[in-house]
């Protein structure tokens, strides 16, 4: 494929094609740069403002470097309380979503029947319908049928209804890659279903279960739309951030943002590098 | 079922089936049915009851605003002089959480002027004012309790007639209906924009020549994707603010003069909500498309190119047809998130801008306290999303199984 | 360890999608027998095996092992052990844990398990690999681990689903001998599934030929080859030249069939009568060349004769394969390589075969071209 030594008739055409490819490649790379600028610049401004002493968050009106907004953070009782609420909800969400997701995945991958398509549609539907509808229906349902006012519990249930679907999809993807024959082989050797489950199925699913826990945790902590409707008069870290944002900007929000971003980048980079190493 | 019991035995199978049944009944189907039931049940409120509900709402709003003032006061106190008691009011806002009142200006509107004079207050003045505010809150609270007790008795079986009807839908005002349509239109436009913006990125990622480039692109996509929705929205509010970055930029190039108080109010407009949504949800389009293009045999593109196909032809005839399931998934997610977003319009609109349907739903529930009408509105939104999903599936010829990865 | 018999009565299997993979079947496999089921891909072999081991419930009929009806008894409670087509070694467990898994399921203590696993790994000549993971073994070694693992539970019936199909020819031949050896030592009933006829004929006491969900014939290897019952069994096991025509006359156990190649006389074991459509079959190694007749020794008076023209002649070591054309019909002939380079080399031939080597049957489904 060296152009210089190629003396055939096709050479000029190939060269022209190569030129146009180089050209479109450069265009694409240029576009990528613009796109990533679009993605990261606003976040960059937000980070800068977190260290700016100006009382309203600003990246342009620089009034000196400060860590004040970070130190004020732990003194804000509602934020701290909200963090505990978020963690409690996330714990509940994980505790419910993993078993539910596993059950759904087992039934859907291990059963051949016409019903499974309907079942599948029902079980993934929470992923596809707007989060506020989930919040609303959960709130109504628990109040009307159980007299339960919206609160941390309903928020947890509302989140579980769709996070469990995500978990289920992850487990299904994993189970579809499993040789089902392994479970049968164990059974054939006299193992009880419980032993098969403990020694074969769960070890096989373990990496996915861990990933699902992490993702459920992040989804739960970060959720706004569903939680906003289902949580009633209580609050989580994120709904509190949301309500503060609506009542004017404060650099404290930027400080939280920086912490979120730092955590996100650490997790994302670690995850990408780990999966890359494994591949 | 037989296959399951074969492998996992009766006990575990029973557990799986039981859990899934609970999930479906308690978290998916019955709640939806209950919402539909409410949507078709019309509460015929006597005028008196309705007025009462409105009064209660106003009282809550007023109380919340006072609490906010109190909070600011205390924060200034605690950040200025560490001595003053920083304990927040034990009466945290209830029921109508920051429910933004469309009439009263929120305290966030003009942050700087309201902040500076209070800073100048002495500690004693602050204490006095705080005490005053607390007594106002207490008064409001006793009034609310009274009114709610009254409401409870009157809204019993005697006070309100319920009947099955379409009234919750048909009584939707023309304005609300227009907002509904506009929301769907905006959501659709966000979806189209997201596709146009994302497609080249997804393509570039799938075609990355080296592993390092791919890793870089993926990290670049994952980080903003994983960052909280609210923060992505917030970062844009900073840009669009009256004294935000965009105006500073315009000031810098001499179009406006910020020091003279000039500047565009970009926030609290549908355009701003739209811009922010594109930014916030664009990435939900990238990954599904990337995943499908990635499975395309690269030699197909080479072959098409070799046969002399133009760049346009390669994409319309080879790449896009292959990426259909991804485009469908991306579109469904983007549309659903935009149409149902409450975060973007509330934050960008500062609660002052009730032009997004999700906000109407919120107000039906928490301000008008009309859960049935709220249900009807939610059902309308849900139906719109389902119709969008069905149309997308038909256009792109994909099944439910393709949709979820 | 000792074997038990397996009895299938009217067993059939229809999958939920409505596909019937096994037609109603009666089959008795004797205790301690090496029994093979031979058939093309997709004919229902694995389905039968999965019903015997308890993973599938027959749609109709019943299965008994050692006289005990197996209805409602799960795979973990049957005296069978299955060696899966894909082996199904547990990838996350070491070799010895794999072998000892059945004992673990029976609550045997760890030290006893390990000891027994070592014995079994000795038996299959793998004693130094016990701490490896299955992924670190070669195909043949994995194969042997699967055998050891199945034997560990001391089954009365060992079910093997094409266990050698993934191995190369040399290893396959070696493993055949080893399996046969293990069967002889343990006296366990082996039910062995394969689509490789050489494997089935070489190892088995009896072979069942299966086609499209039905068992065509159950017989010893000799009988199957020499006296096939159906066109399918005749063509699936070994090779056949097939001619079709109409029965002209029937006399003392023979039938004369009119074919495009003239009258052909063959054994009429299925009692065809005059006027019936028929197929006539003869195996490639039972066809002789007329010009070499002098070397064959005494031949019967009545011989079938077909004129044919040589298309291709391949030397395959001990055999010479001749592909000829007889009036548009291709004929395959095997000759022993006598070292004579001119053997069958000329263009035109007269082919001879005896009526006793020729079989007349009613037409029926036949094996498709086998690789
Ligand atoms: N779960 C199932 N549902 C429907 N049809 C099935 C199922 N399993 C197998 N079949 C069909 O039943 C027939 C017999 O399958 P079986 O696995 O028994 O074949 P086999 O003889 O073992 O073939 P091979 O030699 O390729 O392993 C095949 O046509 C197959 O497509
Ligand atoms: Mg098979």
Verbal overview:
The complex is a heterotrimer of chains A (279), B (405) and C (371). With 279 residues, chain A is mainly α. Chain A has helices at residues 11-50, 68-72, 77-110, 115-128, 131-146, 152-176, 181-188, 193-222, 225-230, 237-246, 251-278. In chain A, helix 3 packs parallel to helix 6, helix 3 (77-110) runs antiparallel to helix 8 and helix 3 packs across helix 10. Chain B has 405 residues and is mostly helical. Chain B has a two-stranded antiparallel ribbon with strand order 1-2. Chain C is an alpha+beta fold. Chain C folds into two domains: 6-233, Rossmann fold; 239-370, Nucleic acid-binding proteins (OB fold (Dihydrolipoamide Acetyltransferase, E2P)). Chain C has a six-stranded mixed sheet with strand order 6-7-8-3-9-10, with helices on both faces. A five-stranded antiparallel sheet of chain C has the order 13-12-11-14-20, with no helix packed on it. Chains in contact: A-B, A-C, B-C. The interface between A and B is large, with 110 and 114 residues. Magnesium ion binds at residues 45-46, 85, 161 of chain C.
Shape of chain B: globular
- The domain tally of chain C reads 2
Report the CATH topology name of the largest domain in chain C: Rossmann fold
The spatial strand order of the largest sheet of chain C comes to 6-7-8-3-9-10
- Which pair of protein chains has the largest interface, and what are the residue counts? A-B, 110 and 114 residues
- Arithmetic mean pLDDT of chain C: 89
How far from one another are the termini of chain C?
Answer: 38 Å
Distance between the termini of chain B: 25 Å
Structural class of chain B: mainly alpha
Low-pLDDT parts of chain B are 80-119
- How is the CATH topology of the largest domain in chain B named? MetI-like fold
The domain tally of chain B reads: 3
Percentage of residues in DSSP E strands of chain C: 25-35%
């Amino acid at each position: 494929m060296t152009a210089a030594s190629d003396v055939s008739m096709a050479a000029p055409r190939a060269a022209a094609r190569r030129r146009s490819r180089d050209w479109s490649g450069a265009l694409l790379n240029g576009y990528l740069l613009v796109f990533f600028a679009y993605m990261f610049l606003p976040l960059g401004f937000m980070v800068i403002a977190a260290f700016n002493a100006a009382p309203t968050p600003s990246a342009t009106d620089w009034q000196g470097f400060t860590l004040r907004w970070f130190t004020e953070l732990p003194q804000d009782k509602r934020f701290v309380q909200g963090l505990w609420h978020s963690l409690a909800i996330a714990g509940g969400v994980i505790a419910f979503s993993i078993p539910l997701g596993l059950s759904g995945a087992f039934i859907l991958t291990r059963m051949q029947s016409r019903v499974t398509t309907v079942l599948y549609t029902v079980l993934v539907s929470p992923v596809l319908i707007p989060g506020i509808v989930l919040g609303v229906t959960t709130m109504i349902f628990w109040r009307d049928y159980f007299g339960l006012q919206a609160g941390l519990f309903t928020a947890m249930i509302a989140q579980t209804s769709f996070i469990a679907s995500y978990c289920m999809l992850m487990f299904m993807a994993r189970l579809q890659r499993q040789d089902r024959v392994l479970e049968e082989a164990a059974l054939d050797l006299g193992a009880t279903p419980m032993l098969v489950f403990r020694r074969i199925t769960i070890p096989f699913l373990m990496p996915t279960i861990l990933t699902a826990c992490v993702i459920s945790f992040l989804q739960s902590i970060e959720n706004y739309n569903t939680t906003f409707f289902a949580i009633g008069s209580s609050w989580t870290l994120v709904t509190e951030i949301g309500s503060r944002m609506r009542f004017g900007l404060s650099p404290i929000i930027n400080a939280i943002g920086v912490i979120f971003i730092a955590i996100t980048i650490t997790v994302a980079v670690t995850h990408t590098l780990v999966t890359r190493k494994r591949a | 079922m037989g296959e399951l019991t074969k492998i996992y035995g009766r006990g575990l199978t029973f557990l799986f089936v039981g859990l899934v049944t609970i999930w479906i009944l308690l978290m998916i189907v019955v709640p939806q049915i209950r919402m539909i039931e409410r949507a078709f049940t019309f509460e015929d409120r006597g005028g008196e009851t309705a007025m009462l509900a409105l009064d209660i709402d106003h009282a809550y709003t007023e109380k919340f605003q006072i609490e906010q003032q109190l909070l600011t006061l205390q924060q200034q106190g605690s950040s200025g002089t560490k001595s003053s008691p920083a304990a927040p009011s034990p009466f945290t806002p209830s029921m109508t959480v920051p429910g933004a009142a469309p009439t009263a200006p929120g305290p966030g509107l003009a942050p700087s002027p309201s902040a500076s004079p209070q800073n100048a207050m002495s500690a004693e003045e602050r204490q006095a004012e705080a005490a005053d505010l607390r007594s106002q809150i207490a008064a409001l609270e006793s009034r609310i309790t009274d009114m709610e007790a009254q409401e409870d008795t009157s809204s019993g079986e005697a006070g309100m007639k319920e009947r099955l009807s379409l009234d919750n839908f048909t009584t939707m005002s023309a304005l609300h209906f227009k907002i509904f349509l506009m929301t769907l239109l905006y959501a659709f436009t966000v979806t189209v924009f997201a596709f146009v913006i994302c497609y080249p990125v997804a393509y570039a990622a799938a075609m990355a020549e080296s592993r390092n480039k791919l890793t870089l692109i993926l990290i670049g996509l994952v980080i903003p994707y994983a960052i909280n929705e609210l923060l992505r929205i917030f970062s844009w509010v900073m840009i669009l603010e009256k004294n935000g970055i965009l105006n500073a930029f315009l000031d810098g190039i001499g179009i406006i003069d910020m020091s003279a108080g000039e500047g565009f109010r970009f926030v609290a407009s549908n355009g701003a909500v739209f811009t922010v949504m594109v930014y916030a949800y664009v990435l939900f389009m990238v990954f599904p498309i990337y995943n499908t293009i990635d499975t395309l045999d690269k030699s197909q593109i080479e072959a098409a190119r070799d046969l002399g196909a133009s760049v346009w032809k390669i994409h319309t005839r080879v790449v896009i047809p292959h990426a259909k399931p991804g485009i469908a998934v991306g579109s469904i997610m983007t549309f659903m998130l935009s149409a149902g977003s409450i975060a973007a319009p509330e934050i960008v609109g500062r609660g002052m801008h009730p032009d997004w349907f999700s906000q109407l739903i919120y107000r039906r529930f928490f301000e008008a306290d009309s859960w049935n009408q709220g249900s009807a509105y939610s059902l309308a939104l849900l139906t719109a999303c389902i119709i969008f999903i069905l149309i997308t599936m038909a256009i792109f010829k994909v099944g439910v199984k393709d949709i979820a990865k | 360890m000792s074997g038990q018999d397996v009895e299938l009565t009217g067993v059939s299997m229809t999958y939920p999608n409505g596909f019937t993979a096994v037609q109603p079947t009666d089959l008795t496999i004797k205790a301690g027998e090496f029994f093979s089921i031979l058939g093309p891909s997709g004919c229902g072999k694995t389905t039968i095996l999965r019903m015997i081991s308890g993973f599938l419930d027959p749609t109709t009929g019943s299965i008994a092992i050692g006289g005990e009806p197996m209805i409602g008894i799960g795979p973990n409670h049957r005296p069978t052990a299955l060696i899966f087509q894909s082996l199904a070694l547990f990838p996350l467990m070491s070799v010895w844990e794999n072998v000892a898994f059945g004992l673990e399921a029976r609550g045997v203590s760890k030290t006893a398990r390990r000891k027994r696993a070592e014995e079994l790994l000795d038996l299959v000549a793998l004693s130094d690999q016990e701490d490896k993971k299955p992924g670190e073994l070669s195909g043949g070694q994995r194969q042997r681990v699967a055998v050891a693992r199945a034997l560990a539970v001391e089954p009365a019936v060992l079910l093997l689903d094409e266990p050698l199909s993934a191995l190369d020819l040399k290893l396959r031949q070696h493993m055949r001998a080893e399996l046969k050896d293990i069967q002889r030592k343990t006296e366990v009933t082996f039910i062995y599934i394969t689509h490789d006829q050489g494997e089935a004929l070489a190892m088995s006491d009896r072979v069942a030929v299966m086609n499209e969900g039905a068992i065509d014939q159950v017989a010893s290897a000799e009988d199957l080859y020499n006296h096939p019952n159906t066109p399918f069994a005749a063509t699936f096991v070994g090779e056949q030249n097939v001619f079709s025509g109409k029965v002209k006359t029937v006399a003392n156990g023979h039938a004369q069939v009119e074919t495009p190649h003239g009258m052909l006389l063959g054994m009429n074991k299925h009692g065809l009568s005059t006027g019936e459509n028929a197929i006539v079959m003869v195996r490639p190694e039972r066809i002789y060349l007329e010009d070499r007749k002098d070397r064959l020794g005494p031949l019967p008076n009545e011989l079938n004769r077909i004129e044919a023209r040589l298309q291709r002649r391949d030397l395959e070591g001990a055999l010479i394969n001749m592909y000829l054309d007889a009036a548009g019909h291709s004929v395959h002939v095997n000759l022993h390589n006598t070292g004579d380079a001119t053997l069958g080399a000329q263009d035109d031939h007269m082919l001879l075969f005896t009526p006793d080597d020729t079989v007349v049957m009613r037409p029926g489904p036949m094996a498709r071209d086998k690789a």
